[in-house]
Fold this sequence. Notes:
CATH topology of the largest domain: Beta-Lactamase
Structural class: alpha+beta
Mean pLDDT: 78
Number of helices: 10
Order of helices and strands: HHEEEHHEEHHHHEHEEHEE
Shape: rod-shaped
Amino acid sequence: xxxxxxxxxxxxxxxxxxxxxxxxxxxxxxxxxxxxxxxxxxxxxxxxxxxxxxxxxxxxxxxxxxxxxxxxxxxxxxxxxxxxxxxxxxxxxxxxxxxxxxxxxxxxxxxxxxxxxxxxxxxxxxxxxxxxxxxxxxxxxxxxxxxxxxxxxxxxxxxxxxxxxxxxxxxxxxxxxxxxxxxxxxxxxxxxxxxxxxxxxxxxxxxxxxxxxxxxxxxxxxxxxxxxxxxxxxxxxxxxxxxxxxxxxxxxxxxxxxxxxxxxxxxxxxxxxxxxxxxxxxxxxxxxxxxxxxxxxxxxxxxxxxxxxxxxxxxxxxxxxxxxxxxxxxxxxxxxxxxxxxxxxxxxxxxxxxxxxxxxxxxxxxxxxxxxxxxxxxxxxxxxxxxxxxxxxxxxxxxxxxxxxxxxxxxxxxxxxx
Length: 418
């Protein structure tokens, strides 16, 4: 046989063998790559969803997903960003790193939510802060969106074989984000629902405690009124009755003593009237029911232990319960200022309507205190209970040397004409 033919045959056989080997190796590599590609998807399809149902923390699961992606495609980095409070915030990164939030306008959020998996050109236009530091690096950004709402972004980057990154990873990223979006959305809804339920539980506990304190305060107030009546007006009325009997007995045989007793009776009756009036004022000031908060608080400021003034222009009349709650809260604030503001301090009471609420403030220029480190006293607790029962809020701002400001907001109906 011709040696040339033998040589050509040998070359062909070797070439075929090498091609076969290359085909086998390539097939194995494709199968391995496909298997690795599926591992990231399977993580989201099975592990991710089931562990979410077991209420494992979402951030922890996203971190494991980032690990799976990095291992699958031999990536230099994987970032998972979440949309929170109008910005993209880095939820997890492999390798770990810190990143400042990226502000996100509503128009940008719409663009991101409707974008396809994108690369370098898109990043340079919309997210320049995420452009790879390596000019030859490849980057892919996959939006995670559900029903038109952007939930976050998955960003992957690779320097080695950068040109092949889109071909190798985009299909996986597409399916992964489609699987991830509803699970992510449900997890966020569950978290929001749990937070709302926790707030409702805390609010219910606060209301229950507040109602208990209100009932207790009402009982204590009734006991105080009973004691004041017994020790004050009742004793004075008993004394008046005794003097009246003595005056009647002395009327015929001792006119001078009768006149003296009648003069004393006049003074005693006046003191009893003043006692009853003061007691009634403490229960519900007549000026408050007749002329409203502004005039009633002006009168209270005139009686204040420290100089005080009222600014209440533009307010009208409100429900009696609301007016009483605001009035007694301001009185409590003035009393606290008198006790704790220090020598030479002055106070101001301000009332105005704002955003469907009646806002009141009691401010003093006294010594102040560290509000963050000081627990509420009985007076401020009473104010919280009064205003909280009407759906309002109370805040105390103070720091040493800067005075104290008590601010309350109470929802109101449209103001009636005064």
